């Protein structure tokens, strides 16, 4: 790269010929002057000068990568190059990431942990690099277009991220192996959490759900209860990123009250005739397969079955639902009108669907907890970074006690949730699967409420810390603004907070038999 002296740069100091220096890199911004979203004059004030401080004051790091670097023409000669943007710099010991306090879980910042081994750190480092390069820089653009390109889903499939989202997948169905070359026999639920956690660093629930929101809840029932033929038809194409699957439970008049669902599958001898509507179905817009809860028997939970419907079956229609957030996740309204479904597409046994759905819920809710906990942490991380650079009343924001108080309350809730999550996950790892529904449904329900309320709290406080920047899309407040709009997508689906808190205590009451009151 061409080198320049400070004196040479200083000569390019007007609107016909304007260079600036940021982090010892020289930029020719002459043609960019009239395009600069912050204005022309503000750039001309630093024409021919070092504008590093001003640049970092007004932009997030991604602007340099996406908009800044194409304007670079050289470096300041002899100048010691500054360290690269602090991404994934910590690679020794257990350290991962840029070491912003509380910006990563404590074990990544060298706290001892009983839960993680070397394969977990290997996975984290591998995904950190992938996410920082392939996902993070484009996240805002995809979110605004409300579309995650198929090529990105494919890229994620090829490094094993889709297979990693579905619990334990039999090895013969995993098309590209698991991320970081980890063997299926060594894979555990902490690996699964790390995958979600690393993608969630982008601060976009829409990205997470657009990649794997339908897959991670729609495929497991087929894998756990479906016939070999159904598993073979669906699993590899979906884990390869070539086909999409979603889970259809919620209806216009049945949400958390699953037993009240109305979609009907009428027994016609050799096939079912399915009629009904499903609402708020993640990834339904592009789905090729639909794991659908239908009524095959009488009222209530004993009359529900799971069927696999296919896009190619006449009578299946999907339309996009315009939502408050989670852009790109393909949330859809689905109608089934006289859809003929072969009996061989029944998942498991007839009228057993409710228990399959309930078992699936533990996995789904844990997934929501993984996401909400990291998204809350993103709010903490973004706030700490911003509070350390924003000047108000002659001081950095972080020097204001009211801001430190806000951060303290955010951090204590995130760390408490993380610890509860890890200890719950350890039960998932160690308890026999048959014991888990009874032992863990209640705690996981309470943990879900804890995680989503923590997320809501942190999104609100981060928005206050960012002020007006959290009210505009893009720019420095990009993640916080998006996350503030995504909170409801965590607090309501998979069992609303109200239902979760009630379920947790009802389950606890059942255990009272063994307790001395
Ligand atoms: C290579 C140099 C630069 C590039 C590529 C660049 C690019 C951008 C972009 C893409 C935005 C809109 C996105 C955002 O809101 O973050 C922006 C906004 C802005 N820029 Fe720059 N910029 C550069 C240098 C500077 C410098 C040196 C200053 C100050 C002296 C400056 C001041 C601003 C301001 C005040 C805004 C508006 C921020 C806001 O909306 O809060 N920029 N710039």
From TrEMBL:
Residues 1-77 form the Cytochrome b5 heme-binding domain. One of its GO terms (molecular function) is heme binding. GO terms for biological process: fatty acid beta-oxidation using acyl-CoA dehydrogenase. Transmembrane segments: none annotated. Its cofactor is FAD. GO terms for cellular component: cytoplasm. Keywords: FAD, Flavoprotein, Heme, Iron, Metal-binding, Oxidoreductase. Belongs to the acyl-CoA dehydrogenase family. This is Cytochrome b5 heme-binding domain-containing protein. It comes from Mortierella isabellina.
């Amino acid at each position: 790269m061409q080198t320049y002296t400070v004196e040479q740069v200083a000569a390019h100091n007007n609107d016909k010929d304007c260079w600036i220096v940021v982090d010892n890199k020289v930029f020719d911004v002459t043609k960019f002057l009239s395009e600069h979203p912050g204005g022309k004059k503000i750039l001309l004030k630093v024409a021919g000068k070092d504008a590093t401080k001003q640049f970092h004051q007004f932009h997030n790091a991604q602007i340099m990568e996406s908009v800044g670097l194409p304007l670079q023409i050289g470096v300041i000669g002899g100048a010691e190059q500054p360290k690269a943007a602090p991404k994934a710099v910590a690679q020794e010991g257990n350290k991962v990431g840029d070491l912003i306090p509380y910006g990563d879980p404590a074990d990544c910042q060298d706290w001892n942990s009983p839960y993680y081994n070397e394969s977990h750190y290997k996975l984290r480092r591998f995904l950190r690099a992938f996410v920082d390069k392939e996902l993070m820089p484009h996240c805002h653009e995809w979110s605004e277009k409300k579309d995650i390109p198929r090529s990105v889903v494919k890229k994620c499939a090829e490094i094993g991220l889709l297979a990693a989202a579905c619990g334990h997948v039999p090895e013969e169905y995993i098309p590209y192996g698991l991320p970081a070359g980890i063997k299926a026999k060594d894979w555990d639920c902490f690996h699964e959490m790390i995958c979600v956690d690393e993608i969630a660093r982008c601060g976009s629930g829409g990205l997470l759900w657009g990649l794997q929101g339908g897959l991670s809840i729609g495929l497991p029932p087929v894998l756990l209860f479906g016939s070999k033929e159904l598993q073979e038809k669906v699993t590899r194409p979906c884990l390869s990123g070539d086909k999409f699957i979603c889970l259809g439970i919620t209806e216009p008049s049945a949400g958390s009250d699953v037993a009240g669902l109305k979609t009907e599958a009428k027994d016609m001898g050799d096939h079912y005739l399915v009629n009904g509507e499903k609402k708020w179905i993640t990834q339904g817009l592009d789905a090729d397969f639909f794991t659908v809860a239908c009524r095959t028997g009488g009222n209530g939970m004993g009359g529900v079955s799971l069927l696999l419907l296919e896009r190619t079956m006449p009578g299946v229609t999907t339309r996009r639902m315009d939502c408050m957030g989670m852009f790109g996740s393909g949330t859809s309204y689905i109608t089934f009108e006289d859809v003929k479904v072969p009996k061989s597409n029944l998942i498991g046994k007839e009228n057993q669907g409710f228990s399959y759905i309930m078992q699936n819920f533990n996995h789904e809710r844990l997934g929501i907890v993984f996401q909400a906990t990291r998204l809350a942490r993103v709010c903490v991380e973004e706030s700490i970074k911003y509070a350390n650079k924003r000047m108000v009343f002659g001081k950095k924001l972080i020097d204001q006690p009211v801001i430190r108080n806000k951060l303290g309350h955010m951090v204590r809730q995130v760390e408490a949730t993380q610890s509860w999550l890890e200890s719950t996950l350890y039960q998932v790892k160690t308890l026999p699967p048959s014991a888990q529904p009874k032992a863990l449904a209640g705690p996981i329900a309470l943990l879900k409420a804890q995680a989503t309320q923590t997320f809501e709290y942190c999104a609100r406080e981060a928005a206050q810390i960012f002020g007006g920047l959290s009210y505009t899309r893009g720019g420095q407040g990009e993640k916080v603004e998006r996350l503030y709009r995504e909170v409801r997508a965590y607090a309501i689906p998979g069992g609303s907070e109200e239902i979760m808190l009630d379920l947790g205590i009802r389950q606890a009451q059942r255990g009272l038999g063994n307790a001395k009151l």
